[in-house]
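Example 9 (inverse folding). The structure is encoded as follows.
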């Protein structure tokens, strides 16, 4: 989720880049850097200062030489390699002439790095991106011009990328390309720009063009030309951009929450990329716990808060089902103070989007103090939780700005389920062909999420029909229960309405007394093995006058008998369903909040990261 900017032909190259980077900080800010090329030299500056990275880079650039008309800038959201200056982009080749910036993940970087090292290349970072600089260097040495060198280098790359490359020995040229990660080109008389996002160049360019997957673009001051990966010319589609700067930062959405809801397929894809070694073993970012230790784990305790707690609850079902390890989930702020039992073989997993939630950090510290090994599942690279843990699995959902967490949830469930599959591989509790089937199934969830997102209008209609309701009960069974908890949390934080999540079977043990006309009951009814029971629960609440909304699969023909409103989702493996079933619930909370005039990005009384107990 890094930000990219490039410019050729501008009178103030450096100023253009730095201004663009300031506008791209919402894509990531672990570190920032620029490279300028001209007259046979490439000049580079980089800085890593957390949220102050771009400001620190501006200081670094005070000593920049003048007179360069070609430049690249990058603001990083770390995936491979800690957010330190050495891992900041641009990366250079061995000659120091070629500079590259990259957004995305190169899946086969380890193999490529080994091959390049064997051929004598020297690496100065631990990023996946640097392999590209050295591949392009080799192609240039073979006599290819920069465009051809980039094109042929990309033929051996797998994964996602938006890249831009310059070379001081071919000045006044930038070559850019994309697969999956976004990239736009902008033009103005005598100047050509490129950027990961329009805001970076919104007030500079007068026309904007979208680069498609597997297209390579050569930019010069006079304009650009594009080819596909076979070298055939292609035309870029011109974009109609009538946004102001604020709208552009939100990618054309009204708020960050709408943008982040829409980004969930991408968050899933990024989280699942590059997770399998050649021998089939599922692998993670930093795993300082040996396979033997993981195999011998006797008990797993997940600790987390809020949405992350709900993702952890889903994980319990997957870990127990697939890996057959006894698993508990604790609210982080409770775990620490209840004199927890940690025995040999206890593994504690801290789950946190920010990696800075004090309750979760204190819980994992307590566990470590008592001798547990700790795995962090975090979205922010090098966050406190990640730094202190024995192993880290990063959810690569990208920067989440909206206080209410959305894309982090689906990414956490995916990452934790991958971990469950790894445990099952090590413990031999699943056949390898079943691991493979689940692994493929996980990769298919993004498309199901996309389909669920495309049904927004149906959800808005239900939200409009229920406008005025003040009490909501969210019900579910099995993994539908944590999904219901998460749906209720979204409605609470966004709308300030009363919403409670319950295991559907628990209803008759008390809460049923609250059901009366005017109350809305929303039920997650997608699991075939729980279906009959959920139908009975819904019949019970309907008989007492509640309005019933059911989240049901496309093939469910009987649900309408008990539900007043049905929100359809594609069917998936039940353990993957929370990632799909949460989508209409997020959209429902969002639509209701907007209708009530709430500030969806900044709900009252709440902070994005809770660093006090
Ligand atoms: O950064 P974390 O995942 O540790 O944050 C945990 C909770 O504070 C967070 O999920 C909170 O509940 C959100 N506002 C939920 O939308």
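The amino acid assigned to each position is listed next.
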């Amino acid at each position: 989720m890094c930000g990219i900017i490039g410019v050729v032909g501008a009178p103030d190259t450096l100023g253009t880049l730095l201004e663009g980077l300031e506008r791209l900080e919402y894509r990531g800010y672990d570190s920032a850097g620029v490279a300028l090329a001209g007259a046979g030299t490439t000049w580079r500056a980089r800085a890593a200062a957390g949220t102050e990275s771009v400001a620190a880079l501006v200081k670094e650039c005070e000593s920049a030489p003048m007179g360069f008309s070609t430049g690249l800038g990058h603001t990083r959201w770390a995936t491979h390699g800690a957010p330190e200056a050495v891992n900041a982009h641009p990366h250079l080749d061995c000659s120091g002439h070629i500079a590259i910036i990259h957004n995305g993940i190169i899946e086969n970087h380890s193999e490529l790095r080994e091959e390049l090292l064997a051929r004598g290349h020297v690496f100065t970072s631990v990023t996946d991106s640097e392999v590209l600089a050295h591949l392009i260097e080799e192609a240039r040495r073979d006599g290819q011009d920069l465009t051809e060198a980039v094109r042929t280098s990309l033929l051996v790359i797998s994964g996602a990328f938006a890249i831009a490359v310059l070379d001081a020995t071919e000045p006044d040229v930038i070559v850019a390309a994309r697969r999956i990660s976004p990239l736009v080109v902008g033009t103005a008389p005598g100047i050509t720009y490129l950027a990961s996002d329009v805001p970076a160049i919104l007030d500079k360019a007068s026309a904007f063009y979208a680069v498609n997957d597997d297209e390579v673009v050569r930019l010069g001051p006079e304009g650009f030309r594009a080819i596909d990966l076979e070298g055939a010319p292609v035309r870029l589609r011109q974009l109609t951009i009538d946004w102001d700067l604020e709208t552009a930062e939100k990618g054309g959405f009204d708020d960050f929450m709408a943008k982040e809801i829409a980004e969930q397929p991408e968050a899933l894809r990024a989280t699942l990329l590059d997770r399998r070694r050649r021998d089939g073993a599922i692998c993670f970012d930093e795993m300082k716990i040996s396979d033997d230790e993981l195999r011998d784990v006797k008990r797993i305790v997940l600790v987390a808060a809020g949405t992350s707690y709900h993702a952890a609850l889903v994980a319990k079902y997957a870990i127990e089902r697939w890996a057959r390890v006894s698993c508990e989930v604790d609210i982080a702020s409770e775990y620490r103070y209840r004199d927890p039992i940690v025995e040999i073989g206890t593994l504690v997993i801290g789950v946190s989007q920010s990696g800075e939630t004090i309750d979760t950090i204190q819980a994992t510290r307590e566990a470590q103090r008592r001798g547990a090994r700790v795995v962090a599942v975090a979205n922010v690279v090098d966050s406190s939780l990640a730094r202190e843990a024995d192993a880290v699995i990063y959810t690569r959902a990208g920067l989440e700005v909206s206080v209410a967490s959305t894309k982090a949830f689906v990414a956490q469930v995916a990452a934790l389920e991958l971990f469950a599959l790894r445990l099952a591989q090590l413990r031999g509790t699943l056949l390898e062909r079943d691991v493979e089937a689940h692994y493929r199934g996980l990769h298919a969830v993004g498309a199901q999420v996309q389909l669920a997102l495309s049904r927004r209008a149906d959800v808005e209609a239900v939200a409009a029909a229920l406008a005025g309701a003040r009490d909501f009960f969210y019900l579910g069974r099995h993994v539908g229960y944590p999904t219901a908890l998460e749906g209720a949390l979204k409605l609470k934080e966004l709308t300030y309405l009363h919403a409670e999540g319950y295991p559907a079977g628990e209803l008759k043990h008390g809460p049923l007394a609250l059901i009366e006309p005017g109350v809305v009951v929303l039920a997650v009814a997608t699991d075939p093995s729980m279906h009959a029971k959920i139908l009975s629960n819904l019949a019970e609440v309907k008989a007492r006058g509640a309005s019933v909304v059911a989240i049901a699969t496309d093939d469910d023909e009987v649900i309408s008998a008990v539900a007043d409103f049905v929100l359809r989702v594609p069917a998936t493996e039940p353990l993957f369903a929370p990632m799909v079933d949460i989508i209409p619930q997020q959209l429902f909370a969002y639509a209701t909040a907007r209708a009530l005039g709430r500030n969806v990005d900044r709900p009252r009384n709440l902070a994005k990261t809770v660093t006090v107990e």
